[in-house]
Amino acid sequence: MSFQQIKGQEAAKKLLQSSLRRKAISHAYLFSGPPGSGQLPTALAFAKAIFCTELEDDACGQCLECRKIEHGNHPDLTMLAPDGNNIKIDQIRDLQRIFSYRSEAGHPKVYIIEQAEKMTVQAANSLLKFLEEPQVPAVGILLTDNVQAMLPTIRSRSQLVPFSALNPEEMLQVLMEEQYPANLARPAVHLASGLEACREILQQNWFAEIRNVMLQLGKESLGRGSTSLISAQQKLFKTGLSEHLDMLLSLFHLWFRDMLYVQYGRHEHIVFIDQLDMLSQLANTRSTEQWVSYMDLAAACRKKLRFNVNGQLCLEQFLIGLA
Predict the structure, then answer these.
(1) Is 36 within 8 Å of 192 (Cβ atoms)?
(2) What is the number of other CB atoms lying within 10 angstroms of the CB of residue 202?
(3) Average pLDDT over residues 106-125
(4) Who is most buried in 58, 149, 182, 223, counting CB within 10 A?
């Protein structure tokens, strides 16, 4: 992985590559952004670029240093992640012990701490001293999706590198190149904030099933003499798919939004583009205001689920609301 291969995050890449070119690498960076926004791949690309013997501001991927990182056996790169629910003080002490020896290659050593907000107070305080007074030249890269949970003293001593959720179109392009089915990838990129989260959704067998159930229930609930309650019982509550009601309602939200795009002729934004014929038939059976109210209804039902309202009751109320 190199900076060139990382999609989006242009501001973060520009900041890091500038520091490489100026040979003004900070002793600590705090990568902050939503889950799946590419913090870990960018951190690894930055570490490779620091070690790379061929390029000034990126990783060539070919030199011995780059290949060691790709194979996961570079002696000057240390990865740290929570042990259970937390990053413990013993892990930070082990890190300090490893970093008491200089790099033989002449470059700084690098450590990457994933989910850095999960450090215990003792671990964070121990790291703070290490950040300020490393025994050898070192670069720390702390990754977090909750920067406010970090100790203010660590935040103030690290250079903040902000990450943002990837653009759905950028994610869709990558997923299509990776041969994921278009009809599943299109909704997935609107349901997750990063490529890893999208891939995780797409690799679940139930995702295609829940999408099909949503389309069936949607079509049935909007017709006369609705049979959607019976279908929900058979397709969801007797099959185990009812575990994924939150995802079902999220898909409904996208589907109702597609109805608005059809009404306004914005076909380029439609998520369920493979269902265009059905969308075109249904879009004008309701007013714009009704479709918006259905989106609100889906959001309200999702909220109820988070407060542990009975799932079956919640979905039945939702489907009756559509009818």
Answers:
(1) yes
(2) 19
(3) 94
(4) 58
